């Protein structure tokens, strides 16, 4: 069952989320695992990264022994400010001293011939990484219930037998993206959602109610051990 944590504002939401994230990494390393983390994009994510860095000083996580990935990426140049990974690279991974070989960026148009090729190369890297299993998956959710770049009623959302998929005509700009699939997210120990704002209230209520995944992709990505929703009171306003 999902753990929905309603916070009175975004700042307490982020504090709780950052502390949960660090505790999961600590526990994984204490248990002898090399944690795989899947990051995402969205408006709360830069603030989340900053909060993780702030709290990292009180944590025992060895950040050089974590593998860093993205659940989805916008298919634009590797230096384009629209990339999901750029904020993480500068505000999270650089301050934490993460070495380059632990960072797994999705190829962009400057290093691949097409979105399909980028998705295939990224899937290949996931497939060939020892024991691919996400320790923690960080996700946002759109007002339409999308997660990563899996959008309601979009062809990419129905793809099976693949780890990553090329997305064209994304309803959220930019239009071309690469996303992990539902199947790739199945191997997740913990999934954490960061969701704030009244415009997300209806989608959050839908995500917490059984129904077709194609109407609300956020119904489908769950952790095998835990799924925690870090939400503010505005986003929680339509919950039963
Ligand atoms: C992206 C994402 C996307 C995002 C949600 C929530 O490319 O932007 O990865 O899935 O997490 O759209 O974004 P907001 O928090 O900005 O609404």
List the helices and strands and how they pair.
Layout: E1 3-7, H1 10-30, E2 36-39, H2 45-56, E3 67-70, E4 72-74, H3 85-93, H4 115-127, E5 134-139, E6 164-167, E7 177-180, H5 182-186, E8 188-195, H6 201-207, E9 226-232
Parallel strand pairs: 1-9, 2-3, 2-5, 5-8, 8-9
Antiparallel strand pairs: 4-7, 6-7
Helix pairs in contact: 1-2, 2-3
Residues 40-44, 72, 74, 84, 140-142, 146-148, 172 line the site of 6-phosphogluconic acid.
Would you write up a description of this structure?
With 240 residues, the protein is of the alpha/beta class. The chain has six helices and nine strands; from the N terminus they run βαβαββααβββαβαβ. Strands 1-9-8-5-2-3 form a six-stranded parallel sheet. The chain has a three-stranded antiparallel sheet with strand order 4-7-6. α2 links the parallel β2 and β3. α1 packs across α2 and α2 (45-56) packs parallel to α3 (85-93). The protein is globular, with a radius of gyration of 17 Å. The two termini are 15 Å apart. It binds 6-phosphogluconic acid (6PG).
């Amino acid at each position: 069952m999902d753990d929905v944590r309603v916070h009175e504002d975004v700042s307490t939401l982020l504090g709780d989320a950052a502390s949960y994230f660090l505790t999961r990494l600590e526990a994984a390393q204490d248990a002898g695992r090399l944690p795989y983390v899947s990051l995402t994009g969205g408006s709360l994510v830069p603030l989340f990264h900053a909060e993780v860095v702030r709290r990292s000083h009180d944590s025992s996580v060895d950040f050089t022994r974590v593998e860093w990935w993205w659940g989805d990426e916008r298919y634009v140049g590797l230096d384009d400010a629209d990339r999901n990974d750029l904020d993480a690279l500068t505000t999270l991974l650089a301050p934490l001293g993460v070495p380059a070989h632990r960072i797994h960026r999705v190829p962009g148009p400057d290093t691949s011939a097409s979105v399909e090729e980028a998705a295939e190369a990224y899937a290949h890297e996931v497939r060939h990484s020892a024991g691919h299993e996400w320790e923690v998956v960080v996700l946002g959710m759109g007002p339409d219930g999308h997660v990563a770049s899996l959008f309601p009623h979009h062809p990419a959302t129905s793809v099976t037998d693949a780890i990553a998929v090329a997305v064209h005509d994304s309803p959220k700009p930019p239009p071309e993206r690469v996303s992990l699939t539902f199947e790739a997210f199945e191997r997740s120990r913990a999934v954490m959602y960061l969701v704030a704002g009244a415009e997300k209230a209806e989608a959050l209520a839908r995500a917490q109610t059984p129904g077709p995944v194609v109407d609300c992709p956020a119904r489908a990505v769950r952790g095998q051990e835990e799924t925690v929703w870090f939400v503010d009171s505005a986003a929680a306003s339509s919950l039963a």
